[in-house]
Write a structure and sequence with these properties.
Helix content: over 70%
Number of strands: 0
Number of domains: 1
CATH class: Mainly Alpha
Structural class: mainly alpha
Shape: globular
Distance between the termini: 41 Å
Low-confidence stretches: 1-12
Oligomer: single chain
Largest sheet: none
Length: 499
């Protein structure tokens, strides 16, 4: 085990060892991200399978098979097809409203368990779906799982992790999201080749594996000391704190959590408290980071990567293969974030990624604008390779910055009394704009053509400016001391805190 760091209550890091209990607990809890990522990745590949389209979306199937579509950009423009993908996120944004009080009153552990149960039931419905209604119902239940899981897991990880490796452990959630996407792409690649036209059922059914992992993990882990103390279980909270920190003298950290918890108990309406002026800094940053995260265009690419590659001229196998490549890049780049976030800090990763995302999307727009017309979608090998490289460049920059940090920064900056409510707003905003992109992307691609990538470029410029001026550095700062050491020291946000 690693050695600890001494602490004083004025602003150091609390003494803690990096214990096996913490690592195992974080790994088990972060499987909620694995389920979320699998749901993101599986939909794009399944919706590109002819047998799936023929059964549930015959209009799209006929349009592609008969070649009656007017523009190559409009092959998959269908509201029902988009609803299959986006319904999950619509359910998630509603579910997160109920997940917030569950996280606060029942604890992080039980909320994760509820997410696992939703995932399991939704997976079963999707795998045996006989009609579009069953398919959408399954996606809605999966969405409930996403709402509860994305609410509880990032908070659990931030509260259980020692301060000096909080960023790396919290990013395990996003790492699992990327692994889930990669696994989904690999499975789609294999199941698309299965004769008989039932490969899509296998793809959807295998979501049961990460669903079971989250459910079992939620049964095994202890709840966080913060959650136990907040619910009046002081002795149990102290015992868990000793267990996860690997030391006997946890009084400094325990006393601070108790003090903050007592303040939290005075708050009867956390959502109303969240709107107070003093909570404006973390609230504004949390909301806008979710908006920016979606308007980078990442989920447009991850949802519809096989569809997108087929649109620009790749064959069916080649499009799924290219999606697998982007999945590998996504995972490897998230590992970069795990290793760098607690050393380089949050702001450096965010700003570097903005430059990289802008350049890569600009190149994609230029290539598609010059080479892909309404009636000609044949890219020569050189340009096709360039598109894949630029997509990978874009995905890599997102994966080590706005992807994981979009969840990490909000989860570590809200005070305890509004943490569950703040995380709820974070998840709600993320799911709302994920739904918007998922529901609109194929139509936007049809009408805006290559210009959609210029649209996302414009948003990247805005988020770069937002980071420069309004996102502070939170590296190495205990989560209970953000007010004094971050917001009161920031040139702009300090005006929102009264003395």
């Amino acid at each position: 085990m690693a050695g600890g760091l001494a602490v004083d209550s004025s602003g150091g890091q609390f003494e803690a060892k990096i214990t096996a209990t913490v690592i195992i607990s974080c790994i088990l809890a972060s499987t909620g991200g694995l389920m979320f990522g699998y749901d993101i990745g599986i939909s794009g590949g399944v919706t590109s399978m002819p047998s799936f389209l023929k059964r549930f979306f015959p209009e799209v199937y006929r349009r592609i098979e008969e070649g009656t579509v007017e523009s190559n950009y409009c092959k998959y423009d269908n509201e029902g097809l988009q609803l299959f993908t986006s319904s999950l996120y619509l359910a998630a944004l509603v579910a997160t409203i109920f997940a917030s009080p569950c996280t606060r009153k029942l604890g992080r552990k039980l909320t994760m368990l509820m997410a696992g149960v939703f995932f399991i039931i939704g997976t079963i419905l999707n795998a045996v779906a006989l009609n579009l209604g069953m398919l959408i119902a399954g996606r809605l239940l999966l969405g409930c799982g996403v709402g509860f899981g994305n609410q509880a897991v990032p908070v659990f990880l931030s509260e259980i992790a020692p301060t000096r490796i909080r960023g790396a452990l919290n990013i395990l959630f996003q790492l699992n999201v990327t692994i889930g996407i990669l696994v989904a792409n690999l499975i789609n690649w294999f199941t698309a080749k299965i004769p008989g036209g039932y490969g899509w059922r296998i793809s959807l059914a295998l979501a049961g594996i990460p669903a079971m992992m989250l459910t079992i993990g939620a049964l095994i882990v202890d709840d966080t000391p913060n959650s136990l103390i907040e619910r009046g279980k002081l002795e149990e909270g102290k015992a868990v704190l000793k267990k996860i920190r690997g030391i006997e003298n946890v009084d400094p950290e325990f006393n601070e959590i108790v003090e903050v918890s007592n303040v939290a108990k005075q708050i009867k309406h956390p959502f109303r408290n969240l709107l107070q002026r003093k909570n404006r800094p973390p609230l504004v940053i949390a909301i806008w980071m979710q908006v920016f995260q979606q308007f980078t265009g990442i989920n447009a690419i991850m949802f519809y990567a096989p569809v997108l590659f087929k649109t620009v001229g790749f064959g069916s196998d080649a499009s799924l293969y290219s999606a697998v490549i982007t999945g590998f890049v996504n995972v490897l780049s998230t590992l970069v974030s795990v290793s760098c976030v607690d050393k380089a800090g949050r702001r450096v990763l965010l700003l570097e990624a903005c430059v990289q995302m802008f350049i890569s999307q600009l190149v994609i727009a230029i290539v598609l604008g010059a080479k892909v017309t309404d009636n000609s979608n044949s890219l020569n090998k050189g340009f096709a390779f360039l598109v894949v490289i630029m997509v990978c460049t874009f995905v890599s920059s997102f994966a080590w910055s706005w992807g994981p940090l979009g969840w990490l920064i909000p989860s570590e900056t809200f005070p305890l009394e509004t943490r569950s409510a703040g995380q709820s707003v974070t998840v709600f905003t993320n799911m709302l704009f994920t739904f918007v992109i998922a529901q609109a992307f194929l139509s936007m691609l049809c009408h805006m053509k290559f210009g959609i990538f210029l649209f996302f470029c414009g948003w990247v410029v805005v988020m770069c400016l937002f980071t420069i001026f309004l996102i502070p550095e939170t590296k190495g700062i205990p989560i209970e001391e953000m007010t004094e050491r971050v917001w009161r020291q920031h040139w702009f946000w300090k005006r929102f805190l009264e003395d």
